[in-house]
Amino acid sequence: MLCTGYTKVWELAPNELVRLPQARGTTLRVTRGTLWITLQDDTRDIVLEAGDSYVIDRGGLTLIEAQQASTVCVLGHVDESRHLEPQPSFARRIVARIASRLAPDDMGSYSPYY
């Protein structure tokens, strides 16, 4: 699908996260992949698949995460400086954090106390 008439086109990698502050009125159309969207002060989780569109209906922070490689057509004013690099999944971040706390990588810096 083409994004004719849209302001921007994003090619998102799996787990890539986009933060959109104050994006109310911005239209997102997914032409490939799956997006997860959450809005500040909103209990909904919105999932868009190829062919779906959504107009952001709240102010505040909007988070968009690609669940797989995705193409998104964007219509509206968005600040691309908020476009972030792919992030490891939540599970991978937890495992890495636990591993870093358990690994004795700087044990040589300790001195025994007598």
Protein model, in words:
Helix content is 11%, strand content 41%. The relative contact order is 0.28. A five-stranded antiparallel sheet has the order 5-4-7-2-9, with no helix packed on it. It has one domain (8-104): Sandwich (Jelly Rolls). The protein is globular. It contains one helix and nine strands. Strand 4 (34-39) and strand 5 form a beta hairpin. It has 114 residues and is mainly beta. The protein has one helix spanning 90-102, and strands at 8-12, 16-21, 27-32, 34-39, 45-49, 53-55, 61-66, 70-75, 83-86. The model has no long low-confidence stretch (mean pLDDT 81).
CATH class: Mainly Beta
**In whole angstroms, how far apart are the ends?**
72 Å
**Share of helix, binned:** 10-25%
The total number of structural domains is: 1
Let me know the number of strands.
9
* Sheet/helix structural class: mainly beta
Task: Please identify, by name, the CATH architecture.
Answer: Sandwich
* Biggest sheet layout: 5 strands, antiparallel
Strands of the biggest beta sheet: in what spatial order? 5-4-7-2-9
What's the total helix number?
Answer: 1
Q: What's the CATH topology name?
A: Jelly Rolls
What is the H-and-E element order?
Answer: EEEEEEEEEH
Average pLDDT number: 81
Radius of gyration: 19 Å
